[in-house]
Amino acid sequence: MNTLAIIGAGPGLGLAVARRFAREGFAVALIARDKSRLEALVSFLRADGYTAAGFAADVRDRSSLAAALESATAELGPIEALQYSPVPAKEFMRPMLDTTAEDLVGPIEMSILGPVAAVQQVLPGMRSLGKGTILFVNGSSAVRPRDGVAGTSIAFAGESVYAQLLHGALAAENIHVGQLIIPLGIGSGDPAHEPEVLADRLWDIHVQRGEFRSYAAPLID
Ligand SMILES: NC(=O)c1ccc[n+]([C@@H]2O[C@H](COP(=O)([O-])OP(=O)(O)OC[C@H]3O[C@@H](n4cnc5c(N)ncnc54)[C@H](OP(=O)(O)O)[C@@H]3O)[C@@H](O)[C@H]2O)c1
Q1: Dihedral through CA 136, CA 137, CA 139, CA 141, nearest 10?
Q2: Residue nearest to atom 12 of ligand 1 (CA)
Q3: Which of 115, 160, 186, 212 has the highest count of CB atoms within 10 angstroms of its CB?
Q4: Atom of ligand 1 nearest to the CA of 60
C-alpha cells in the first residue's frame, strides 16, 4: 500500500483529502502539531476502515517534519503522494507597512523552507517507486498579492515559484507537481469550496497530471 502524507492536516480540507485518497486505496499519514487532534482525525478514518496514522510535527521545525515523514514511511509504506497545506497563522497576515523583516520569518519558514525540507525528504522514495505527486494548496494571495496579508503574500510567492520550478524539474521522472489555488474560504457556502469538492479536485490533479496550476474557482476581481 502506498501512502499519501498530508502536511498540515486538520478537520477541513485535510480530512476530506485523506478520505478521498484512502477510498482509492492509499494509506494516509496526517501531519500537524497537535497530537490529540491528529488522534481524533485518525480515529474517524479508521472507523471507516481506512489505514491512517498521525505524526506530530511543526513545519517550522524542519527536523521534526523530516522525522515525521520518515516515521510515516516506516509505519505505513512509501510516500507516493504529498500534500503541503498547513493553514497560515493569523499573525502572518499583517498590513504591508506594518510588516517587519522579523514578521516574515514565520511565513518564510512555513511556506518556503518547510516545503523544500518536505520535498527533499520524500523525493528519494518517489524516485524508487518511479512515480509521485506533490500537491501545494494555497489561497489567492499566492497569485494575487494583497495588502493586509503581506506575510503570506510574500511567502506564498516564493512557495509558488519553488513549486513551479519543481514541476518542470521533476516532470521527466514521472513525479507530478501541482498547485491548487482556493480563492474563497473553505466551507464558506460556495459549492466549489466545499472540502469534499476540493478533495475531488486534488484527486483529479493526482490522476490527470495536467498543468502546474489549477483554480478551485475563478479569481474574483
Ligand atoms: N480555510 C480557508 O478558508 C482557506 C482558504 C483558502 C486556502 N486555504 C488553504 O487550504 C489549506 C488548509 O485547509 P483548511 O483551512 O481546511 O485546514 P485543515 O486541513 O482543516 O487544517 C490545516 C491544519 O494545518 C495545521 N498547521 C497549522 N500550522 C502548522 C504548523 N506550523 N505545522 C504543522 N501543521 C500546522 C493545523 O493543525 P495544528 O494546529 O494541529 O498544527 C491545522 O489543523 C491551506 O493550504 C490553506 O492555505 C484555506
Answers
A1: 0
A2: 87
A3: 115
A4: 31
CATH code at 3-215? 3.40.50.720
> Structure pTM?
0.98
Distance in Å, CA 12 to ligand 1 centroid: 8
Q: Please calculate the CA angle 201-115-197 and round it to the nearest 5 degrees.
A: 15
Quote the ligand 1 centre to 86 CA distance (angstroms).
4
Rounded CA gap, 173 and 119, in Å? 14
As a three-state string, the secondary structure of 195-215 is: HHHHHHHHHHHHHHCCCCEEE
Residue 92 vs residues 64, 80, 96, 189: alpha-carbon distances, Å:
21, 31, 11, 25
Q: Is 114 in the pocket of ligand 1 (CB under 6 A)?
A: no
**Would you kindly state where each structural domain of the chain is located, as residue ranges?**
3-215
Q: Say what the pLDDT of residue 220 is.
A: 82
* pLDDT of the residue at 175: 98
Count of beta carbons in the 10 Å neighbourhood of residue 199: 21
Q: For 33-76, how does the pLDDT look when each residue is reduced to its tens digit (9 = 90+)?
A: 999 999 999 999 999 999 999 999 999 999 999 999 999 999 99
Are 55 and 102 in contact, with CB atoms under 8 Å apart? no
The pLDDT confidence band at residue 94, using thresholds 50, 70 and 90, is: very high
Q: How far out from the chain centre does Cα 149 lie?
A: 19
DSSP state of 11: T
